[in-house]
From TrEMBL:
UniProt keyword Ribosomal protein, yes or no: no
Function: Iron-sulfur subunit of the cytochrome bc1 complex, an essential component of the respiratory electron transport chain required for ATP synthesis. The bc1 complex catalyzes the oxidation of menaquinol and the reduction of cytochrome c in the respiratory chain. The bc1 complex operates through a Q-cycle mechanism that couples electron transfer to generation of the proton gradient that drives ATP synthesis.
Protein topology in the membrane: Multi-pass membrane protein
CDD domains xrefs: Rieske
Protein name, entry field: Cytochrome bc1 complex Rieske iron-sulfur subunit
PANTHER family listed in its UniProt record: CYTOCHROME B-C1 COMPLEX SUBUNIT RIESKE, MITOCHONDRIAL
All copies of domain Rieske, residue ranges: 263-327
Entry keyword Transmembrane: yes
Keywords, comma-separated and alphabetical: 2Fe-2S, Cell membrane, Disulfide bond, Electron transport, Iron, Iron-sulfur, Membrane, Metal-binding, Oxidoreductase, Respiratory chain, Transmembrane, Transmembrane helix, Transport
Domain of life: Bacteria
Length: 344
């Protein structure tokens, strides 16, 4: 810009209010010229890109197979085996999702049309809208090339067909055994006379060890010695033990002897989706689940006072043995875990 025009409002460098339409310092340059890609001009490059996309869809299918191998063919009885299983499940799921996502992106980048389009708005008319919608769908199908590229179509269909299966198997184990679901959660290792021991060390606990305001994580005695199914049993049997002033407990009929001098034991498994309840507020006597903030009132038999949980925490009846150690009177009187299971 010349020196004499610097800062001059009439130089034309800046659009001003009231300026006639179409008069701007820089005219609209419009859309840049379309530059064809290599796959648009070279059939061999297009075929190569098609094979690449199909290979990515196959990677997704292989990832799903790896997931199933880890989920069903890998043992999980020990911590080491569980880590190997989780590795297969994680890698399988990752490659299943990554293969589909990357394949679709590569398909769009190399094979689908990339020319710019401008569509004028039109009046809304029911019949015309239907016709226009059909034309749009036909254009999308035609431009995607899915009709004339059977390799892409078939591998994509295969990947999409098997990709949801891992989620289905995780959410529902497809177990045909008779004790599936709530029946499996109805029974734990707790039984008459089974001592309460500290988790994870396994040392027994005397009633005198539990002070008012404390919260102790316990498991049934003998759980650490299991050779098979230890983690599954622990997932059902973990318990929180706390002590209150007996006068603070609101006890319902039939539970008068379920506590010992204000010492109470409740399942740690939240009745919402099964997260571990691990936070105890001493002043309010509330137990809090950190996953979705379900809150249970310890004074009122762990009934729900806030959050999405729909059921109180199951109580474990306890007493002491001849040596003063805390023991269970029986198993839980109801299933532990999420309340969306049928409990009848």
């Amino acid at each position: 810009m010349s020196e004499q025009n610097y800062g001059n409002p009439d130089s034309g460098a800046v659009a001003r209010s009231g300026q006639p339409e179409g008069q701007f310092a820089i005219e609209n340059p419009g859309l840049p010229p379309h530059r064809p890609r290599l796959t648009d001009t070279d059939p061999k490059a297009a075929k190569r890109a098609e094979r690449q996309v199909s290979a990515l869809f196959l990677v997704s299918i292989i990832g799903t197979i790896v997931f199933f191998l880890g989920y069903f063919a890998t043992s999980n009885e020990t911590i080491g085996e569980l880590r190997v299983q989780n590795l297969f499940i994680g890698l399988g799921t990752a490659f299943a999702m990554l293969g589909i996502g990357t394949g679709i992106v590569q398909w769009a980048r190399t094979l689908m049309p990339d020319h710019e389009m401008i569509e004028e708005r039109h009046d809304i008319r029911t019949e015309e809208d239907r016709v226009i919608a059909e034309e749009i769908i036909e254009d999308v199908i035609e431009e995607s090339g899915i009709k004339r590229r059977p390799l892409l179509r078939n591998t994509l269909i295969g990947a999409l067909a098997v990709a949801p299966l891992p989620a289905i198997f995780i959410l529902r184990d497809l177990d045909n055994s008779e004790d599936y679901g709530v029946e499996r959660l109805r029974h734990t290792m707790w039984d008459t006379g089974v001592r309460l021991v500290r988790d994870p060390v396994g040392t027994p606990i005397k009633a005198s060890d539990i002070t008012i305001g404390s919260a102790v994580h316990v498991i049934p005695e003998g759980l650490n010695e299991l050779e098979h199914g230890k983690l599954n049993e622990k997932a059902k049997a973990v318990v929180l033990v706390m002590r209150l002033n007996p006068d603070q407990l609101n006890i319902s009929p039939g539970r008068e002897d379920w506590h010992y001098n204000g010492i109470v034991a409740y399942s740690k498994i939240c009745t919402h989706v099964g997260c571990p309840v691990a936070l105890y507020e001493q002043h309010t006597h509330h137990l809090l689940c950190p996953c979705h903030q379900s809150t249970f009132d310890l004074k009122d038999e762990c009934k729900v006072v806030f959050g999405p949980a729909g059921h109180a925490l199951p109580q474990l009846p306890i007493t002491v043995d001849s040596e003063g150690y805390l023991v269970a009177q029986s198993d839980f009187h109801e299933p532990v875990g999420p309340s969306y299971w049928e409990r009848g």
